[in-house]
Amino acid sequence: MTDGDVAAFTHLGATVRGALSERGFSTPTAPQRLAIPPLAAGQNTLVIAPTGSGKTETAMLPVFDDLVADPPEGFGALYVTPLRALNRDMRERLEWWGEYLDLEVDVRHGDTTQYRRGKQAENPPDVLITTPETLQAMLTGERLREALADVSHVVIDEVHELAASKRGAQLSVGLERLRDLAGTFQRIGLSATVGDPEAVGAFLTGGRQCVIREIDVGGNVDVTVRTPEVTEADDDLAGRLVTDAETASHVRLIRELVETHESTLIFVNTRQTAEALGSRFTELDLPIGVHHGSLSKEARVDVEDGFKAGELDALLCTSSMELGIDVGRVDHVIQYQSPRQVARLLQRIGRAGHRRDEVSSGTIVTTRPDDTFEALAIARRARDGEVEPAGIHEGSLDVVANQLPAMVQSRGATPLREAIDTITRAYPFRDVGAETIREIAGELHRNRIVWFDEADERLETTGGTWQYVYSNLSMIPDEATYEVHDIASGSQIGTLDERFVVNFARPGEIFVQRGEMWRIAEIDDDEERVKVSPIEDPAGEVPSWIGQEIPVPAAVAGEVGEIRSVAEPQFQTGASAAAVARELAGRYPADEHTLTEACDQLERQVDGETPMPTADRLVLERQGRTIVLNACYGHEVNETLGRLLSSLLGQRAGSSVGLEVDPYRIELEVPSSIATSDVLEVIAETDPDHVEAIIELGLKNADALAFRLAQVSTKFGALKRWQGSGRLSNDRLLAALEDTPMYEEAVREVFHEDLDVERASTVLEGIQSGEIDLVSHRGRTPIGQGGRSSSKELLAPENADASVLETVKERIRNDRVILLCTHCTEWKSKTKVRRVPDQPQCPDCESTRIAALNPWAEEVVDAVRANERDEQQERMTERAFRAASLVQSHGKQAVIALAARGVGPHNAALIINRLREDEDEFYRDILRKEREYARTQSFWD
After folding, report:
1. Is residue 864 a contact partner of residue 851, using CB atoms and an 8 Å limit?
2. Please, which of 318, 346, 579, 822 could form a disulfide with 884 given CB 3.0 to 4.6 Å?
């Protein structure tokens, strides 16, 4: 044991050192060596170290030591986590220490029973583990406020996650409100990855002094990027999984990696991918669980426990598993497709291997060139510690609106200047002016949330304050969820969040869900339901919306552009993709096959004598009405440039311009009146200083702004919980609120979360000064078309309709039909299709000329039985006789076809007479006819 090892634990008292010996802590971990001395001295400290490296004990050992030395009467320490699941983990980890040290550790969150809450108020535990929202609630309770007055330490776990959200902005004010109660207390932040430690430290402490103790995460991470090579075995696997060989190769590689390790986490970027990939592993009967935020708490806990117990070899998960939930030891992490951000990769790969000095190992499995180059750039940046900044929400006005009533509810009548002082001590609000907060108070007064006496500048409660505070403990927007139903089968295929429905959904628009492409047929806001029909042949169809993507930062996209610029001259001098790949292998962690596969796209670009889009060259290409500006600037810059172009080109054309953006392309669907020269002209002539103003002007007509405005105004008490009303009155909403703090905040939020005006303006300046090249090309290029493959989920099987077909079969089997004998016309029976015999026969006259009719077609029965028929009855009778002829010839198969929706005797005959290999094809034809009817039924009368 070195002097440094000994020195860390000597800062702790004898009781805690005794607990360390009992627990088997012989030597401190690296973060403990670095951080325990300043923590034991009571200094505010931000600890940055890999997940599983002992950060929790690093923070809590000095806290426990202080609480043992000076036992609190109320709460001594708060441990705040962003997830309830982490509350459970923390309690399990800290309870042993509490028992040994005679300190009570307890948990409080939204699900804590009323009885337990009462006990905590009567007899506060020494350490309380809680969430940001529960702290908000506690600050308003009279007895709890008394207990909170004793707090001497606050630990914020996963502080980077909170710093970048409005939840964190709200917490920062909550900590200042706690300071008003308890006086100065020690603040401790814990995180696995932070790109801007000084800013996050200032967020943690309210700009006060903060010691930063950081372990180099990148140097302890071993990441490999791999694109699987398709083999003969993948053809066989593709047959079993009903998919293509390329997708089968992804599944095979992941399976091989899982088999060669003891316990593996497989991260994916979306819940849809988790479900799709999970279904493949289920088909292969592999012990791999699925874990994501849409699953119930019970389902998540079940797979966590199964993995920890060794019953599952791997967990397939989304960001739900990033934040340190304890699932036991992980020895490898697989990331399926690019993680999009360096911080995300480090968080995820950092879950693997945390025995002392052990390297965290991981594999990124990539699927196409963009994906591979992006993953390479991220892996290189992770190794060198080049992490993105957190992106703190500066001056969120709806958080101010949320906190003013909370303060008044907890304090009683409050001078506005005291509220302003508390709010502006919080780091994200340090620059918010008193006049702005005064305006917000006035808005809350008009909405009867608080009483604001302008003469005395005093805030007081109203009848609505208490209800507002407890309905708005969280800054997470309360959004509706729309069910998505296949219009033909009636089956639910998934859900869409309200943001998507309001911002995008219109009849006729196309989107991807469950690995399939769907066209919207109808939207029912009252029922919160979207009816869709599938795209039968997706070739040539361009999804209008693919999904909420994790934004790729400008620096990562720029490095992809740099890789291209290094490769281009090599290809121009005759090098092969394999040769360029070998050169790249010296700098990037990938095998030759992976690099060669990706470089093949670049080689085709050069071979086609088309310019290469790079970090300092944009390539504009056009085919028909589609214009693609290849730009390696990441999501936010490209979104900004894209909105600018679509707005200005739309003004020129007098009609709307379609926009689709990814980190490397801005795709515009323009009216035929827009020439390529118009695009070049707009780029050349737009003043970079006017970018923000032009985009804000364009936002006034955008549903996206109206949606955010509705959410923001809810926090101001101006709207009841919003339920899709933006679809009905966006213009009125925008007009009514334009000159209010609500409008200002909605615009700020759009710019903060989606756009990067500063960098976009710099790009425009660079193009106009000649520092950045802009070249145009007629026709599409390999790179320009490279983004399209992302529009369809790679894991979609070729016949991704097995569950839909089963639903259709089940529905038709249970549908009722009227069987009518058209020979004697007397016998009639109403029964379920599944009860119909293979060859129906009249029990009275033994005829097999039995018509199968809809269960509500009593008028057809009357028409068949009538002695004299009018023209309409004749048509009905003719259809019944044709149906009976089909049943006589084809038996139950005809009954099934006739029971389908919108399928009459003519279409039933077409379906029956088709030659086919299996029953599924028969039902697939029925489904096709049903969907055809669903799409055209509005024209039928």
Report:
1. yes
2. 822
Helices (H), 668-721: 676-685, 691-699, 703-715
DSSP 1-60: --HHHHHHHHTS-HHHHHHHHHHT--S--HHHHHHHHHHHTT--EEEE--TTSSHHHHHH
Residue 12 binned pLDDT confidence (cut-offs 50, 70, 90): very high
DSSP at 926: H
CA distances from 823 to 848, 885, 895 (A): 9, 11, 17
pLDDT classification of 791: cutoffs 50, 70, 90: very low
With cut-offs at 50, 70 and 90, classify the pLDDT of residue 745.
Answer: very high
Q: How far apart are CA 566 and CA 570, in angstroms?
A: 7
Q: Are 691 and 760 in contact (CB under 8 A)?
A: yes
pTM of structure:
0.79
Question: CA neighbours within 13 Å on the CB side: how many for 435?
Answer: 1
Task: Output the pLDDT for position 792.
Answer: 38
Of 237, 321, 319, 246, residue with least CA distance to 280: 237
Domains of the chain (ranges plus CATH)? 3-217 (3.40.50.300), 220-383 (3.40.50.300), 397-471 (1.10.10.10), 554-791 (no CATH), 802-939 (no CATH)
- Please give the pLDDT value at position 357: 56
Owner of token pair 């993507």: 549
Rounded Cα distance between 79 and 189, Å, is 10
Tell me how far apart the alpha carbons of residues 9 and 23 are, in angstroms, rounded to a whole number: 14
For residue 830 the two structure tokens come to 């109403």
